[in-house]
């Protein structure tokens, strides 16, 4: 290690007479339960292996000894819990403490895994010396090998110094050419070549061999083939030099390897039994990200998350070895989804399961669905795949999105193969046209199943439509404004139907309705378009038209929120289309309140449900209540409203300034008037009729506004708070509809003629 350290050791260590020593029992505090030494390996001409499953304040493991010699090098490997790190002491002078400044050869590393070494002084006397490891996330200052240590623990080991050996141990044991029952083990030759070769030992237990352990075999080279191994088993391998019949080295530091799994004829893997990030018999290649975690799989169970940032950052999942991978009779079936943008998985195989460059693509699968339900992907594996190949799923990094997959099958493909690429077109309120890519099995026909429920059909599900010839069909007699889920399967014979294809969904168009009663409780909060057949128009940055569930509704828990809070804002809730909008027999009735007592809400219609400029006012309402009450706002819709337009409720900053409106219990209903409504209309008159330039309004109630329409329904003049005498001098001669709206919300439309 350090030259200065070795110099002091050489000068200060005399030939002490060694004897058994008593060492302090270190103390640790209760704060240290998560900070401890998990694993340790000390090695030179022999090795010790330490494993801990849980925290202990102090472990006297001095019965285990690492063997070295004067001038030797002791390699140290430490693994800690969490961010813990360690000090290592050696009581070189065997005086029962670690207080001498040269007795701390390894200081803490900034990493929780430590690979370091210390040197045995060349003048060190043979004997047994105490090693102490102190682990912790935080150390006292000064650090004390006797404690206290409130954030860690202590473990003791022993170092046995033997005379310099004449036969040194080999190093760097590795394994290659691993199968389910064989492997080639190799090691690096010792610094002095042994005259009689090497002995090796392998075992499936982690108990290291001793000097008297019978070796598994011998080799005159630095490698050996071993066989008769158990599949999918971890083996520990050791080697030692044979310098003569009576002179053998210590066993080397061990190497480990795991045998491959036996080839499988079929497989189903849903990753539920997996502990950690790797499934049995699977492998991972490439620098990209791949893990198994809860929440990634079907029904939020365990599944694979695979991602890659670029082509150079690819991720490759290597499946178990299949005995029939090139039989041409099987396919790979799995479920997959994305969370945002579409992604691509490449399905293929590797001819070397430790070399990603041997990957070959069989088929690329485009994945755009954001949920698992109803979606499965199937790839037929051809018989041209090499018999020793392993199937693999690659995320190439293009595009760089997360892809999730689960429920992977290796199984015989059916005789009747599925359809693909089901598409929809010409969606109306009652029908939809389907098309799909024909099955390669040339079936006699196809079955169709559709439902308002997205539960996928099974083999025993009765189709709605059977034995369709060709690969197009029009489904009729659907309900309007409904979400339908559709599946197609091939029918190769009366007893052989293929699997249902992936789910396809549609929302049928809205059909005009004669009446409406809506309180919005059955829809998700968010845009008002969550309510089928409703629309919205917003102009400006802050304008909004939503279904609100966070403020008290008139009934239930949800209602409409209209907001136009800055200059230029317009927010319009567009109602469903009514088949009798211009019958002159119906009215719009709803509850509403305003955030301010000066609220002014407009009710009208739009010819274009996407264009605020197409809004035509029918009646402006003074909404002065700031909470819901028992009263409704009622607007009688005249027969002058053009057919095929849609009623709309509008808030705009120009009229109301910064006011929010809440609307609930909306009804489109027959406009039969109650007694109070009839009497209110009877009190209102417009005269003279015909008129020349001026008309007069007579009413016992205060007038809110007046609007003049031509006979096409176009508004030609609008007056807010008119006087009892109104000039219409600028209008050309002709017939007009004059609508007068009173402060109490009632209105009357009168046909008048200008001379």
Automatic annotation (TrEMBL):
Keywords noted in UniProt: Repeat, Signal
PANTHER family membership: RECEPTOR-TYPE TYROSINE-PROTEIN PHOSPHATASE ETA-LIKE, TENASCIN
Q: What NCBIfam families does this protein map onto?
A: Por_Secre_tail
Residue ranges that the Swiss-Prot or TrEMBL entry lists as coiled coil: none
Q: Kindly provide the name given to this protein in its UniProt entry.
A: Fibronectin type-III domain-containing protein
Using the record's annotation, list all stretches that form the Fibronectin type-III domain. Answer: 169-262, 418-511
Is Repeat a UniProt keyword of this protein? yes
Look up the signal peptide feature and give its range: 1-20
Is Repeat found in the keyword set? yes
Q: Which SUPFAM superfamilies match?
A: Fibronectin type III (SSF49265)
What Pfam families is this protein classified in?
Answer: fn3, GEVED, Por_Secre_tail
- InterPro entries from the xrefs? ECM_Regulatory_Proteins (IPR050991), FN3_dom (IPR003961), FN3_sf (IPR036116), GEVED (IPR045474), Ig-like_fold (IPR013783), Secre_tail (IPR026444)
């Amino acid at each position: 290690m350090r030259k200065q350290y070795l110099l002091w050791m050489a000068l200060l260590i005399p030939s002490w007479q060694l004897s058994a020593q008593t060492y302090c029992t270190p103390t640790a505090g209760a704060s240290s339960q998560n900070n401890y030494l998990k694993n340790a390996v000390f090695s030179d001409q022999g090795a010790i292996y330490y494993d801990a499953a849980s925290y202990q304040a102090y472990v006297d493991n001095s019965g285990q000894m690492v063997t070295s010699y004067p001038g030797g090098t002791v390699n140290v490997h430490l693994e800690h819990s969490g961010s813990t790190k360690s000090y290592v002491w050696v009581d070189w002078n065997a005086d029962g403490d670690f207080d001498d400044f040269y007795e701390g050869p390894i200081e803490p590393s900034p990493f929780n895994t430590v690979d370091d070494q210390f040197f045995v002084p060349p003048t060190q006397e043979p004997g047994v010396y105490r090693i102490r490891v102190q682990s912790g996330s935080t150390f006292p200052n000064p650090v004390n090998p006797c404690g206290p240590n409130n954030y860690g623990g202590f473990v003791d080991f022993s170092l046995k110094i033997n005379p310099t050996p004449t036969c040194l141990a080999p190093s760097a044991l590795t394994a290659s050419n691993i199968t389910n029952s064989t492997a080639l083990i190799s090691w690096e030759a010792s610094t002095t070549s042994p005259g009689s070769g090497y002995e090796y030992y392998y075992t499936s237990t982690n108990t290291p061999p001793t000097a008297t352990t019978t070796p598994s075999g011998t080799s005159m080279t630095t490698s050996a083939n071993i066989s008769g191994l158990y599949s999918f088993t971890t083996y520990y391998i050791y080697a030692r030099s044979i310098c003569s019949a009576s002179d053998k080295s210590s066993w080397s530091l061990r190497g480990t390897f795991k045998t491959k799994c036996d080839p499988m004829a079929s497989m189903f893997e849903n990753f539920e039994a997996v502990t950690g990030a790797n499934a049995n018999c699977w492998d991972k290649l490439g620098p990209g990200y791949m893990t198994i975690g809860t929440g990634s799989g079907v029904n939020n169970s365990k599944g694979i998350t695979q991602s890659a940032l670029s082509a150079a950052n690819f991720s490759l999942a290597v499946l178990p070895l299949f005995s029939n991978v090139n039989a041409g009779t099987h396919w790979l079936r799995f479920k997959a989804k994305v969370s945002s943008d579409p992604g691509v998985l490449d399905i293929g195989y590797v001819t070397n399961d430790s070399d990603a460059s041997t990957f070959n693509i069989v088929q690329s699968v485009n994945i755009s669905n954001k949920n698992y339900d109803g979606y499965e992907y199937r790839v037929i594996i051809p018989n041209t795949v090499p018999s020793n190949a392993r199937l693999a799923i690659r995320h190439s990094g293009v595009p760089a999105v997360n892809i999730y997959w689960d429920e992977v099958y290796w199984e015989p493909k059916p005789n009747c193969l599925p359809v693909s690429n089901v598409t929809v077109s010409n969606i109306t309120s009652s029908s939809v046209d389907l098309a799909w890519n024909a099955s390669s099995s040339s079936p006699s026909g196809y079955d169709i199943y559709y439902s308002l429920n997205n539960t996928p059909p099974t083999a025993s599900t009765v189709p709605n439509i059977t034995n369709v010839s060709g690969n197009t069909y029009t489904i009729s007699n659907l309900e309007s404004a409904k979400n339908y889920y559709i599946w197609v399967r091939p029918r190769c014979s009366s007893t052989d139907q293929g699997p249902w294809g992936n789910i396809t969904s549609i929302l049928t168009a809205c059909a005009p309705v004669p009446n409406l009663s809506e309180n919005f409780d059955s829809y998700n909060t968010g845009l008002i378009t969550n309510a089928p057949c409703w629309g919205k128009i917003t102009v400006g940055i802050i304008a909004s038209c939503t279904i609100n569930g966070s403020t008290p509704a008139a009934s239930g828990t949800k209602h409409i929120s209209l907001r136009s809070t800055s200059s230029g804002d317009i927010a319009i809730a567009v109602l469903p289309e009514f088949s009798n909008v211009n019958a002159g027999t119906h009215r719009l009735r709803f509850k509403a309140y305003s955030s301010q007592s000066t609220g002014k809400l407009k009710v009208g219609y739009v010819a274009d449900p996407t264009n605020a400029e197409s809004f035509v006012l029918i009646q402006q309402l003074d909404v002065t209540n700031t909470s819901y009450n028992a009263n409704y706002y009622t607007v009688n819709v005249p027969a002058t409203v053009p057919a095929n337009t849609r009623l709309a409720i509008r808030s705009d900053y120009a009229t109301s300034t910064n006011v929010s409106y809440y609307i609930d219990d909306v009804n489109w209903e027959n406009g039969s008037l109650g007694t109070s409504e009839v009497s209110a209309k009877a009190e209102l008159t417009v005269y003279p009729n015909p008129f020349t330039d001026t008309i007069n309004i007579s009413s016992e109630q205060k007038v809110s506004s007046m609007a003049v329409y031509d006979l096409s329904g176009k508004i030609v003049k609008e007056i807010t708070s008119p006087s009892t005498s109104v000039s219409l001098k600028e209008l050309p001669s002709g017939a007009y509809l004059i609508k007068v709206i009173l402060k109490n919300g009632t209105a009357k439309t009168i046909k008048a003629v200008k001379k």
